[in-house]
Amino acid sequence: MRISYRPLWVLLAQREMTKKDLREISGISTASLAKLGKGENLTTDVLLKICEALNCNINEIIETVPFSDEDKKKSNIE
To answer: How many whole angstroms separate alpha carbon 9 and alpha carbon 51?
Structure first.
């Protein structure tokens, strides 16, 4: 399984917010925002900052999804 930030992007769209807006209100770094955009892992501290800024729960910004065949090839997962 891996983490997907798709629910976060949906939430931002519903609130008519940009990634820049998210960065400014949450105080996360541009590096963390870049990791979000690439679907990379982030610390729980960063995720909690986002939740606090958006007044939501963590399950509203992330979801778990199964590894795709491509993910498995990249990571040598069986």
So the answer is: 13
Domain spans of the chain?
A: 2-75
Q: What is the pTM of this model?
A: 0.84
**Over 60: is that where the pLDDT of 77 sits?**
no
Tell me which amino acid residue 48 is. Answer: L
Query: Rounded CA gap, 49 and 54, in Å?
Result: 9
**Paired tokens of 76:** 């040598």
**11: Cα separation from own chain's centroid:** 11
The C-alpha angle 59, 64, 69, rounded to 5 degrees, equals 165
Q: Which CATH architecture has domain 2-75?
A: Orthogonal Bundle (1.10)
What local confidence, expressed as pLDDT, does residue 67 receive?
Answer: 79
